[in-house]
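Appendix B. One record, verbatim.
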Amino acid sequence: MGHGDLSRSEGRQLAVASATLGPWKTAARVGAVVGAAALGVDLITGHWSTDILAGPVGLALFFFFLVGTVGGKVREHGDRRLHRWAEQHPWESALPAAGALLVLNTLSLTLLGSWGLFGALFTSLLPAGLLLVVAGVVGSVKRARKNP
């Protein structure tokens, strides 16, 4: 199943399907722990403001998507065909998680914080880009190690 014999729509569908391979229950636990810890630090240090939840929610979302996406690239459970496609296309398979993080982090900064839409969008580009780079590099390294 090479890249040339798939339409763009089929490639996007495979990218979204490959995102389901991650350990999402574990990712939810990690995200909840990180978010709770960040909120606890904010409460203890006295950083009280109207957007006290925006930062911890953003960290929780980042670690949720990081653990879920990278964990899906590392582990070998699930559909072998999806794993094979994700290994052949490490950057494309990381795009759905990075896009979801971008949208959800923008919404959390806008709704829970005092950010405007464009400020929240530009602020959310950094964690989404970082997630894309980390997941893409992990997938590329795994592919390179598998096919010496």
